[in-house]
Structure formats: C-alpha cells, structure tokens
Design goal:
alpha+beta, Alpha-Beta Plaits, five-stranded antiparallel sheet
Length: 86
C-alpha cells in the first residue's frame, strides 16, 4: 500500500490546499508529518497517489511559502519508506 504527502510548515497553508482539493472532489486528509520523512515538524495533506498530478499542479500554481516537499510513502508491514518526489 502507498500514498502521498504534501508537507507544509504552516497549518494555514495545509488547510488551504486541503480545502482546494476537497472542493474539487478529491478526498484528502490532514495528518502530522511523520518524523521518518526527515522533517522535524509540520503537517501534511495525505492523498492517493493517483491524485499526484493534480496536487502538484495546485501547489505549483499558488504561492505556498511553507511547502516543504512532496513524498511517496510505501507501507511495508510495520515500517514505512519515504521517497521525496519534489
């Protein structure tokens, strides 16, 4: 199983992105950014990998100043691996 995260350092910008996506009909959730992702703090928008092009497009079209990166998370039993996408 895998999913993607758009990580931010600002709660406001995280909520803004989630709102845009939810209003567009994409199911997303907001989670604390896992420490294993290599970021010390922040929150993330969690979404299905198939929505990656849409999420990337929205992020690139808005002035998100606290965007910290996009990650693919692969769940392997009790352990997750994180791949930075951009």
């Amino acid at each position: 199983m895998s999913f993607c995260l758009a990580a931010f350092r600002s709660r406001n910008e995280t909520l803004y992105l989630a709102n845009i996506l939810n209003n567009g009909g994409y199911r997303v959730s907001i989670i604390n950014t896992p420490k294993d992702a290599g970021l010390s703090c922040g929150i993330s928008v969690k979404f299905e990998e198939r929505f990656l092009p849409i999420v990337r497009s929205v992020i690139m079209s808005k002035p998100f100043r606290s965007f910290a990166g996009m990650y693919r998370v692969v769940c392997e039993g009790q352990r997750n691996t994180y791949e930075r996408l951009f």
